[in-house]
Design brief:
349 residues, mainly beta, 4-stranded antiparallel sheet, 0% helix
Amino acid sequence: MKEAIMIYLLIGTYSPEDKAGIFVYDLNTETGNTEFVSSTPGLANPSYLAISSDEKFVYAVSESGETSSAAAFEFNKEKGELTKINKQQTQSPGPCYILTDTERNFAMTANYTGGSVSVFPIDNDGSLKPVSQLLNFFPESHLHMAITSPDKRYIFATDLGKDRIYKFDVMADPSGKVLTKGEPEFFAVPKGAGPRHMVFHPNGKFFYCINELDGTVSGFVYTAGQLTNFQHIASDTVEHEGTKGSADIHITPDGKFLYASNRLKNDGLAIFKINEQTGELSSVGYQQTGIHPRSFIITPNGKFLLVANQQSNLIQVFHIDSNTGLLTDTKQDITTIEKPVCLKFITSK
């Protein structure tokens, strides 16, 4: 099936409830050009978004202290517009990530401040039901992300506070009790690393985690639910007073290059070449960006990388050299959105 040239770009932000918080743009994946389509108010700080597998629904966290919630939206592909369905409280503060499993009908938030994960059953109309599972890992825990394994049998979740990557077995359960602790319950990263975001290689054999606090990337071999570490490599190589600020991590669709964003002082993207046999990373370059590149995304055809720079209110569009992995700023910036922090695609129109 031929990849679509025109796709939707969805942008999550930090914004008050009475202002637009989620934005929709058209994106031309051949030219990198973007054009505003719509915006959606009515949700405070929709800082992370997830798209259902059929692309009919969008789910968002709402970071709002003790009243933090997750919200469901219906997406109209013809108009490129979101309509809010409902929201449910996470029962734990600080949700910073949301994952959806629309085959087994649940959503899951990673709650940074609460040190927990919340599970919500999804109804047939796409709406979220109240929390059916709340798994706490306090004290000292800061859950930051959750990702489904390529075989869909497990979910892994990072705990930045305890330097752990938790493993959960996943099963379909009408009651919504879909997660059980795995064996082992967690995999450790070096003390003080601060695991944040994760990505699986397209071949399903390798797994990478960017560590926020020490500015490294950890590489693992993935085999039947097990993670075997083979590398820790620096992503942020500039000296900092205190901790570093590494943030996001993604791989090109062809599996050749990995990118990792760094904030606080050395704002930019570390660029790595991936050894396709061993999974090992080797540094091939560094691309400076706007201020505080919290999130970025790569187009399905691998031609462009878009970066959301939270503190400079700027989304940049970079062209990817398919041979070297190096980036070129196309100067096709989106400059009209305040505090952009999440980028997602809806790929069919």
